[in-house]
Design goal:
With 221 residues, the protein is mainly α. The chain has one domain: Fumarate Reductase Cytochrome B subunit (Up-down Bundle). It is built from 8 helices and 2 strands. It has a two-stranded antiparallel ribbon. Helix 1 packs antiparallel against helix 2 and helix 4 runs antiparallel to helix 6. It is elongated, with a radius of gyration of 20 Å. It starts with 5 loop residues before the first strand and ends in a 5-residue tail after the last helix. The protein binds protoporphyrin IX containing FE (HEM). The site of protoporphyrin IX containing FE has 18 residues, from helix 1, helix 4, helix 6 and helix 7.
Length: 221
């Protein structure tokens, strides 16, 4: 395969982590709905839903540590940390593009490079998801799995109702996130470009860039 006009943005460990995680989340969401709404839903028997939810939950937790070890071990975790000096202006620019510029055919204000692959709002969202929301979901899930065993910790955090509310709220946040995430992923130079890149690792690189981005990344010119 010829990769002349392409840049390698998603290394194999990231792609493997991502698709196991996405697939795991879909199963967790379906079984989660069944567990939460057992009285009105009949997707599968409640006990089976709980068993599948627990196994897949632990697989997603294990997979998360592969992500964490890869990103921290390689030092690439930097790509997740926003530059606070330019964050606000870049985020506003990007949101204007998503809400308006994209539909007029304007160039994407963010130029993707392997060292700077996320645009500003994406970076902030992914950082919150990977370092705050996902760990909170995993910890609350483990507590709900063995309530008696973790009773002391559960009490310190305000009791089982608090833990359950956190887990369910995050469940709704992640479910909504997947819709927004998939929609935004269709806004590449073709609707499937970003999806393909998450399989092959390579992103096409013939977009137009605005002057500010070219000044920051002269190799784009
Ligand atoms: C059907 C489910 C999903 C699909 C189709 C999907 C699709 C994609 C695509 C196309 C990308 C590359 C473009 C981009 O960065 O936006 C991506 C990246 C990413 N996705 Fe997803 N995604 C799914 C579920 C999830 C879930 C459940 C999470 C987290 C809870 C997630 C977290 C991420 C993160 C953190 C990245 C950036 C990864 C990196 O390059 O380090 N995705 N996703």
């Amino acid at each position: 395969m010829n990769h002349d006009n392409q840049i390698y943005v998603h290394p194999a460990p990231v792609r493997i982590w991502h698709w196991i995680n996405a697939f795991g989340f879909i199963i967790l969401i379906f079984t989660g709905f069944q567990i939460r709404y057992a009285d009105i839903l009949n997707l599968l028997p409640l006990q089976n839903a709980i068993t599948v939810h627990n196994y897949v939950g632990f697989a997603v937790i294990f997979n998360y540590f592969l992500w964490l070890i890869y990103y921290i071990g390689s030092g690439k975790i930097r790509i997740y940390i926003p530059d606070l000096r330019t964050f606000v202006s870049k985020a506003i620019k990007q949101m204007k593009y998503y809400g308006y510029g994209y539909f007029k055919g304007d160039p994407n204000p963010h130029a993707m490079t392997p060292e700077n692959k996320f645009n500003a709002p994406q970076q902030k969202a992914y950082l919150a998801i990977m370092l705050i929301l996902l760990p909170a979901q995993m910890i609350s899930g483990v507590f709900l799995w063995k309530i008696k065993g973790y009773q002391d910790y559960i009490n310190i955090l305000g009791g089982i109702k608090v833990i359950d509310t956190i887990h369910v709220l995050l469940f709704f946040i992640f479910t909504s996130f997947i819709f927004v995430h998939c929609y935004l992923a269709t806004l590449g130079h073709t609707p499937t470009a970003h999806f393909k890149a998450m399989f092959t690792g390579f992103e096409d690189h013939h977009e137009e860039h605005d002057e500010e981005e070219i000044l920051e990344n002269p190799q784009l010119n």
